[in-house]
Design a protein that fits this description.
Helix content is 55%, strand content 14%. The chain has helices spanning 3-6, 11-17, 26-48, 57-79, 95-117, 122-146, 150-168, 171-174, 178-186, 195-201, 206-217, 224-227, 241-269, 273-304; strands at 311-316, 320-328, 331-338, 344-351, 354-360, 366-369, 372-373, 387-392, 397-402.
Amino acid sequence: MEGDVQGLLTHDEMVDFARLGGTPSDGYMRVVEMLDNVVRECMYVSRSYGGIPSPSTKHYYASVLFTALVTKGVTLAQLMPFTPWVEKKIEHWDYASTAGLVRTMLELRIAFYYLCSDECDEAEWECRWNILNLHDCVARIRMFTAIENDEEIGKLSQTAEEIRDRLRANIFFDALPDRKKKTALHGQSAYLYPLEDIAEKAGVEKTQFRWLYVLLSSHVHALPMSFFRIGEERGRGLPTPVEEGYTSICLSLASTFLVKTRDEVHDLFQAFKAQADEIIERESREAEEALADLDNNVKIALSEGMLVGEKKVLYTSGVITIEVTLVQQGKLEVRYRDVRTGAVVLQSTESESGTYLELYDLYFWTVIVNGEHVTNDQMAFLEGDNFAFKADVQSRTLYFKHG
């Protein structure tokens, strides 16, 4: 844009200019809604199995990998244009960045299947796990070699040799061809089998995997394929059919990876679901009792007269701290803080006339309205006053009654 034209535009006009292209297609919005629903459900599934001591190393890594996959899904949901997760003044189109995230999600999907879902005997699983450990160790040695940290290199080299000894003692590893054993002991490969073979077993057809891996990987590095064709059709942050099309592919793929992994998480933890429900029920009951006391404390605080500006911590657990501040006589501000980050995840105002919900963190809470899981688009009723809500701090669930 030329300088004299730019100087004539106000900030609002610049924002309007950046919205070139109007609303996206119905097909694209259906993909956005699909990813939105899948990510929220996977967050709920992850929380529903929380608190269970891992019955095996496989279950532990299932938890780790599923959490990592869902975390990437949340990031993708925030980045996608016309997302219900964040408010934006400008809808920025950048499928290349979503492609990088989706490649990571593809690799996490493969790792999950390989380590947690694929059937194999204990000896083979131990072999797979130790090869992954060795790859991690060798990668860290390379990293510390780059900065000449001899102390860390020494520790890691010793660990690497211990892992190699475990592999040599493994009966499954001992039966492998010599060439494969040599490659594995070198520590440069994380997997026993080619990624495309694992991907095929995990539900991604081999030809499709090859195409996807080239496409998605081309945007991770600033190599020619990532920028040679930047122009009118892509790469400028503006809406175009190419940007919408490739973004739709990325969102659809991410949804597929999440759904397949979610189903396998259910299969892995099904036998322990009753235990998880018992833990959640017990902690929820304890939290409800504490929060009942909180309601009394709020009333007492209003009646006994805190000083304006005074703050009190009314409840704390390993998950949430609840604090109240008297903002003016007869009016309290209530804040729920995530213990781990200190961030405010829910804020309301309490007074004799009732409760006003000011904000809630939709990433922290699972939201249920009238007994059903909902998306952020279905929360427009919060603009009125015809609703009530309760926060279950242990399961991180907000229950709304509306209508």
